Amino acid sequence: MMEQYYTHWLKHRTVLHGLLEEVGPQHVFFKPWSDGFALGDLAVHIASSTDMFLETIRNGQFVSLRTPREFQTMDEVREILDEFTQKSKRDFQELQTSNLEKEIDIFKFTAPGSYWLESMIDHEVHHKGQLFTYARMTGVQKVPFFKQLPPQAVNDAAE
Fold first, then answer.
1. Segments forming the whole domain that contains residue 87
2. According to the model, what pLDDT value does residue 2 have?
3. Is residue 159 part of a domain?
4. What is the mean pLDDT of the segment spanning 103-128?
5. Number of domains composing the chain
6. What whole-number distance in Å separates Cα of residue 105 and Cα of residue 113?
7. Nearest Cα to 133, choosing from 146, 118, 123?
8. Model pTM?
9. What would the pLDDT profile of 71-94 be if each residue is shown by its tens digit?
10. pLDDT tens digits, residue range 39-78?
């Protein structure tokens, strides 16, 4: 069960890395509207929120969002994303079935860890979809499929 969650999440996170590779350095602070997240901030929000969810599930109680280091460039955003991705991979490896069964309160909503793990993935997918729109608005022509394709599909597309 845990492997399925991990694989599902990683197929989305891998695409997020690929999408950010296509974004030009001049767009790190692009905002489609004045009150929206800047592109770099949204990418970092995805990564830090996933970290918060995994830490919460692993610890069995709410863990506040960790403030990531500041950035000025797209390369720094990519580095932060990579750092959080590596940490999230390690955190996933530490999760046990008991973590998914434990009831956890987050913002006065109580649900088992499995619910919060699914919510974590949904949150990431939601914001990644926004980043696809941001990327297109900045002129990115080549965007990846919304999640990593199975090897056979990649081979078929290349032929």
1. 2-23+38-144
2. 86
3. no
4. 97
5. 1
6. 10
7. 146
8. 0.91
9. 999 999 999 999 999 999 999 999
10. 999 999 999 999 999 999 999 999 998 888 999 999 999 9
Spatial CA neighbour of 92 closest among 49, 57, 66, 122? 57
Q: What is the CA radius of gyration of the chain?
A: 16
Q: In this structure, are residues 85 and 17 in contact, taking their beta carbons and an 8 Å threshold? A: yes
Mean pLDDT value across residues 1-22 = 95
Q: Cα(137)–Cα(30) distance, rounded to whole angstroms?
A: 9
Within a domain: residue 157?
no
Residue 35 neighbours by CB under 8 Å, 6+ apart: none
What letter represents residue 17's amino acid? H
- Amino acid type, 96: Q
SS (H, E, C) 103-154: EEEECCEEEEHHHHHHHHHHHHHHHHHHHHHHHHHCCCCCCCCCCCCCHHHH
